[in-house]
Amino acid sequence: MAISKPFMAARRFSATAGDGTGVGVAYNILATATTNDAGVAATAFPTEPAYYNLYINGLIQTADTSTVTTTAITIPGGDALDAGTPIIIEFVVN
Q1: Alpha-carbon gap, residue 84 to 62, rounded angstroms
Q2: 81-91 tens-digit pLDDT
Q3: pTM
């Protein structure tokens, strides 16, 4: 029988598309370019989230839209977005 962790919480990070670097498939936003729920600069994304959600301009994106590590989120083609477009990354942790 699998062990279920009883605690779930969310960690949210925000940025704008203009905070990203790179072009095409190499476009990414560093964790250090985001702010966390407390409104301060983040140092890293969670190491082992249960899952994460990406919101671009308030719209949730499908799983094939991005990849994430503890240091950055890669959004292929994200450089085509307007620099002011809000980006929210929500990690669900347990």
Answers
A1: 21
A2: 999 999 999 99
A3: 0.89
